[in-house]
Specification:
With 456 residues, the protein is an alpha/beta fold. Helix content is 44%, strand content 11%. The strands form two sheets. The protein has an eight-stranded parallel barrel, surrounded by seven helices. Helix 11 links the parallel strand 9 and strand 10.
């Protein structure tokens, strides 16, 4: 067999030679104006990336060997949620995320017959109870390391405008639960920032500043097991979203080193709600597929899909089955689990990763010099910055620069949705007393969809 390489007869082409050829083909056109575009974060994207200008990015690996297929379950009833969880595991789910509305939900019934020794379980509780969490730990025993309590008091303040109780009591409960051995307690819900319209640099910077508040309060030289679970929402810019997750892991590693805590963080990802649509809803399946792909290639540890009809339908077997199958196809038929870090060495992704990380670090330092994340929430600075970014994105959607097929372009005018709506799909503006203005999630298509519904 010949040992001659197929490419030996071709001489290597430098970056300068490629650019010269491109400029020649443009026939006098300006290279930067025609082929270089700028992202909302101010990153200039070139038409090609070359080894000659490759950037130095550290190897970025997920917290575990491979990513897990997740299934979200609302636990309004312990028995029905348990049955649904067991059925999901039979259908291929590998981890379970429960939303628990009340401490009245009996966790022993909720987790009955679930193999906790090899099934990661995420408990998203709408309450804060040291007694409840201690009981869960006692029940789980040695499997407690597979349970994520996902306690995020700061996230609740940002989302609702109020603490669970108050700052002192909330952080006291967190501190007590953290003392329990092998517990994974703290969570940073960064999905809020993406779904509210923050750009990727803001999402990274605010996630880091959010986590830093917990580090300041709880991380000590004796807290070697201190760990944070980041929950991120993945948008539609495929390569930028891959880079965003990689940049988050890199930034956390940098911050953790300063406190002497574990360098690895746990990241779960879910598709964004921001670009999901009410009309021509099947296009949502296409969006969530590429967003889940970006989450996997970015290095998320667990991926939860969003059913195509989640914004307007109650939980239903068909929507949930399709969303689970999307992940199973990626894992079992597309082999997205066979390479630990497929994005390593991709010049474009690594260049964007570095720029996102560097820009986010500057914003993070600005937040810290301004008193920290909590201080800037209370002064409404964070809310205003996100609103500014969201407004810019909304303008691009409204003028058609940002396209959502079937919604602001290529509409099916015969599509009717008024009778199909089971959930209110728009921003809720319930007036209530809050300590600070909350950060509101809002989809890009809301006003347009409301007008279409009114015209049906």
């Amino acid at each position: 067999m010949s040992k001659i390489s197929l490419f030996d007869e071709f001489s290597p082409v430098s970056e300068k030679e490629w650019k010269t050829k491109i400029q020649f083909d443009l026939k006098g056109g300006d290279y930067n104006e025609i082929l270089v575009w700028e992202s909302p974060e101010g990153i200039k994207v070139k038409p090609f990336y070359h080894q000659d200008s490759a950037v130095d990015v550290p190897k970025i690996k997920r917290d575990q060997a491979t990513w897990a297929v997740g299934q979200h379950i609302y636990a309004g009833s312990a028995q029905s949620a348990n049955a649904k969880a067991l059925a999901a595991l039979q259908k291929g789910a590998e981890s379970l995320s429960f939303s628990i509305p009340s401490p009245d939900i009996v966790f022993s019934e909720l987790l009955k017959n679930i193999p906790l020794n090899n099934t990661p379980v995420y408990l998203n509780c709408a309450f804060l109870s040291e007694k409840y969490f201690k009981s869960v730990s006692d029940f789980a025993g040695a499997s407690i390391s597979n349970i994520f309590f996902d306690l995020d008091c700061i996230g609740r303040l940002a989302r609702t405008g109020n603490w669970f109780e108050n700052w002192k009591d909330d952080f006291n409960v967190l501190g007590q639960v953290l003392k329990q051995p092998n517990t994974k307690v703290l969570s940073v819900d960064a999905t809020l920032y993406q779904n509210a319209g923050a750009n990727r640099v803001q999402q990274l910077a605010y996630s880091l500043a959010h986590a830093n508040e917990y580090l300041n309060s709880f991380a000590t030289t004796n807290t070697k097991e201190f760990a944070v679970h980041f929950k991120v929402a993945v948008g539609s810019n495929y390569f930028f979203e891959i880079a965003k997750i990689r940049a988050l892991r890199w930034l956390w590693k940098t911050l953790a080193k300063e406190y002497g805590v574990a360098a690895n963080c746990h990241i779960s990802a879910v598709p964004s709600k921001r670009n999901k649509t009410l009309y021509d809803y099947n296009t949502n399946m296409l969006r969530t597929t590429t967003e889940c792909m970006a989450a996997v290639l970015g290095g998320a540890d667990m991926v939860l899909n969003l059913p195509y009809d989640a914004i307007y339908h109650k939980d239903n077997e068909f929507g949930e089955r399709i969303s689970l199958n999307q992940l199973l196809l990626l894992k079992n038929e597309s082999y997205f689990h066979t390479v630990a870090s497929a994005a390593d060495g991709a010049y474009y992704i690594e260049a964007v990763t570095k720029q996102l990380a560097e820009k986010a670090l500057l914003v993070f330092k600005s937040v810290e010099s301004g008193g920290g994340f909590l201080s800037q929430l209370k002064s409404h600075t964070i809310q205003k910055k996100i609103q500014e970014s969201a407004k810019k994105e909304q303008v691009k959607f409204d003028n058609g620069t940002t396209v959502l097929v079937g919604t602001n372009k290529y509409q099916n005018t015969s599509d009717k949705m008024k009778e199909a709506i089971e959930l209110y799909p728009f921003l809720k503006t319930k007036v209530r007393k809050t300590l600070i203005p909350p950060i509101h999630e809002k989809r890009l298509a809301e006003e347009l969809e409301q007008n279409r519904l009114n015209d049906e």
